[in-house]
Design brief:
The protein is of the alpha+beta class and about 450 residues long. The chain has one domain (about 55-435): Outer membrane efflux proteins (OEP) (Up-down Bundle), CATH 1.20.1600. The protein is built from twelve helices and four strands, in the order ααααββααααααββαα.
């Protein structure tokens, strides 16, 4: 073999050095064990969101802050890196393999030691490249659609909690007003009892009504605190953080809007789009499994020198003959997975359609009930005012005054509860129909 002259470089060591230099290295990332909760709205990530001058946040403001700051969404977005890594892996060929051997001459007719070497490249990835790439891209799109659906749900949950908090505040205000009115009746009754103008039996009625209202007030205040903590957690705030809210404005979903949305549900709901991408991914994996019947396939070159100083070199090809295994188990599993995902998509679409239609009917019923309850509450409120004046003038007994005020308070709170339920139903319906979502690319499939 020719000797390497002075000043020449040996290519193999330099190739090894370059290969090692391009390898990844490890960098520690210590886990942060401190809770990352913010003390105020101002400390949250606003991403350009302009807070109103009066500080009161609308439903949209709270929804955007929740999407930007929700801890669970941050964790979900981190999962996207895994799907991106899968897409990167699908586009990279495997590294070539190199082998070499040396056999020292220990005896016999030979006069040199034997050496051998080979360079092989697995080309299986070229055969399945298109299917693998499509599967990985569909997987990434599925993750993106899933994250969007989570964001949409978090935004809707934030809006619903705002409406719930508004209902809690109105309920507490009604109970406090009712308690104040009953307390006035109770104090007056107590004076009449002390003056021996009324019996204790008559006084007990107003006392019992006041106790019932106070118990309901305590429960309502506890509910308000719980709902506020839920909204704080949704926004990544410390528990007990006050969030200034503007009176929530909820748009009613019309029948025409609902019909149009239902007709295109599979093309707009992110969870359904995620399932369709999952089906597309399974279809691509099935094509890859069928192509894998002939894998692995490797090509390369090998050469060497024997002990008689005879040198040889030539190409090498390695492939699998699909005689017995033929990847039948892998193909059957991929085909079954595709069929299962197709069935899951159809079932989810039917459930989404049926759920939206049922909620549409429920929202219409709640609107009608709320309108009737509002009218009844207004009428009961007028009677309660008249009863207070009549009681103050001595024209009505304490029992009747207490009963009429209690009835008016209950009517008013029933209207508040129905109003809250109706608005939450409208928000839920908009979420189920995907109203307001940006357009999302969908795969072409026929599950």
């Amino acid at each position: 073999m020719p000797r390497v002259g002075k000043g020449r470089c040996r290519p193999l060591p330099w190739l090894l050095v370059l290969a090692i230099a391009g390898c990844a290295s490890y960098h520690p990332a210590p886990l942060n064990l401190a809770a990352q909760l913010q003390p105020s709205i101002a400390a949250l990530d606003h991403a350009g969101l302009q807070i109103p001058a009066n500080g009161a946040l609308s439903l949209r403001d709270v929804a955007e802050l929740a999407v930007l700051n929700n801890p669970d969404l941050a964790a979900a977005r981190a999962q996207r890196g895994i799907a991106q890594a899968d897409l990167l892996a699908a586009g990279l060929p495997p590294d070539p393999s190199i082998s070499g051997g040396f056999e020292a001459l220990l005896g016999g007719p030979g006069d040199v030691s034997a050496i051998s070497g080979s360079l092989m490249q697995d080309v299986s990835a070229l055969i399945t490249y298109k299917a693998d790439k499509q599967a990985a891209q569909a997987g990434l799109s599925q993750v993106d659609a899933g994250i969007l659906w989570q964001e949409w749900q978090v935004a809707s949950q934030a809006e619903q909690l705002c409406v719930t908090l508004d209902g809690d505040a109105r309920m507490i205000a009604s109970l406090r007003a009712n308690a104040a009115g009953l307390n006035a009746v109770n104090q007056s009754t107590a004076k009449q009892v002390a003056a021996h103008n009324l019996t204790l039996n008559e006084a007990s009625t107003s006392m019992a009504a006041l106790a019932t209202v106070q118990t309901a007030l305590n429960t309502a205040e506890q509910g308000l605190s719980h709902d506020r903590d839920q909204l704080d957690a949704l926004l990544g705030l410390e528990p007990g953080t006050e969030i200034p809210l503007a009176p929530p404005q909820v748009q009613t979903v019309s029948a025409a809007q609902a019909k149009q949305a239902l007709d295109t549900l599979a093309q707009r709901r992110p969870d359904l789009i995620a399932l369709s991408y999952g089906y597309t991914q399974a279809d691509a994996k099935l094509r890859g499994a069928i192509l894998s019947q002939f894998l692995p396939v490797s090509i390369g070159a090998a050469g060497g020198r024997d002990t008689a100083n005879v040198m040889s070199a030539g190409p090498q090809v390695t492939l699998t003959l699909p005689l017995f295994n033929r990847n039948r188990a892998g193909i059957a599993s991929a085909r079954a997975t595709r069929a299962a995902l197709g069935a899951q998509f159809r079932a989810s679409l039917a459930a989404a359609d049926g759920g939206a239609r049922a909620l549409l009917a429920d929202a219409a019923l709640l609107r009608a009930q709320n309108a009737a309850a509002d009218a009844q509450a207004r009428g009961a409120g007028v009677i309660a005012v008249q009863a207070r004046h009549a009681y103050a003038a001595g024209m009505l007994d304490a029992l009747s005054a207490a009963n009429l005020q209690t009835a008016a308070g209950e009517r008013g709170r029933e209207a508040i509860a129905l109003n809250t339920q109706a608005r939450i139903a409208e928000l839920s319906l908009a979420t189920l129909l995907g109203l307001g979502l940006p357009p999302i690319a969908t795969p072409e499939l026929a599950p």
